[in-house]
Amino acid sequence: MFPAAQMLFALSGFLRLTMGFDIGLSTKCVAIPMEMGMCHGVGYSEMRLPNLMGHTSMAEVIPKSAEWQHFVQTACHPHARTFLCSLFAPVCLDTFIHPCRSMCVAVRDSCAPVLLCHGLSWPDSLDCDRFPADEDMCLASLSKEYKHIHKELPKPICQTCPAVEEFFTQKRVLDVFCANNFAVKVKLSKKRTVSGDQEYNIECQVEFINQGLLMPYDTRNTIQQWLLMNENCTQRMTQTYRPMVYLIVGNIEEGTVLVNQIYRWQRRDSQLTLATRKWKHHKCL
Q1: Residue 70's closest CA among 217, 224, 187, 236?
Q2: What pLDDT, on a 0 to 100 scale, did the predictor assign at position 194?
Q3: pLDDT of residue 9
Q4: Are 52 and 87 in contact (CB under 8 A)?
Q5: H helix count then E strand count, the chain
Q6: Cis peptide before 90, with omega less than 30 degrees from 0?
Q7: pLDDT > 90: what percent of the chain?
């Protein structure tokens, strides 16, 4: 087996092999450029041009793939990156390996709501009917075994923006804590990328005020996904490029993360500090 093929097995876990079509001499292998950060670290370093989206040059591929970088960062599906990179940067083998129809359907069903949150619909160019059935040569979707051993974690959803409060009393904060099942303190920064987009990062560790049903090892990623998925809310929170501390309060219900209240935590806010200290011994009515 070619080394690239071995890496592809490690990437996807499942290749259904029967028969493919010969690429021929009309395509070439090229290094995946640095500008295609979405497809770095996927298990191979060279791609085919033209790709499976019909792009014939890097001048086409780079800006088109960059449109999906933000989408992949939301982690709306475990195979979203694999699916997109198999199309924009197909691995350099003797045969094109398409994503299976089942993988497309799984990614579409999980990720289309994220696009909708940004006012976009699932594109016709990614119509799942164009991809081969699982019995053909293709990258398969998640197996039952994978789903069994990887516990489903709570997922953020597209939602109406919660209020960002700056003036409050400790009683009001404690009442909000009682009405929700998690509260976390995060330091959020904003910067502009080379392409001109906004990028939001959580600095340092997330501090739990009330852990609730959040998983300690995954909370930072969960909050990051919420910020990306609800970018219009995040923009309202971060008016400047100076890092700010926020207290994010919400509920986890039926596997979804819903943020209901956000407090901007400034050093002079003694009410927030008092409320979080009292919370350990507070009894909700």
Answers
A1: 224
A2: 62
A3: 36
A4: yes
A5: 10, 11
A6: no
A7: 42
Closest by CA position to 27, among listed 5, 50, 47:
50
Q: Are 35 and 44 in contact (CB under 8 A)?
A: no
Position 231 scores a pLDDT of 87
Whole-model pTM? Answer: 0.73
181 SS3 class: coil
State which H helix or E strand residue 187 sits in. Answer: strand 182-192
Surface-to-core class of residue 99, CB atoms within 10 Å of its CB (0-12 exposed, 13-18 middle, 19+ buried): buried
**E strand or H helix at 116, and its extent?**
helix 101-117
Percent composition of the chain: helix, strand, coil (DSSP 3-state, to 5): 35, 25, 40
Q: What's the gap between Cα 189 and its chain centre?
A: 18
Cβ atoms 237, 188 nearer than 8 A = yes
Model confidence pLDDT, tens digit, residues 17-38: 333 334 444 789 999 999 999 9
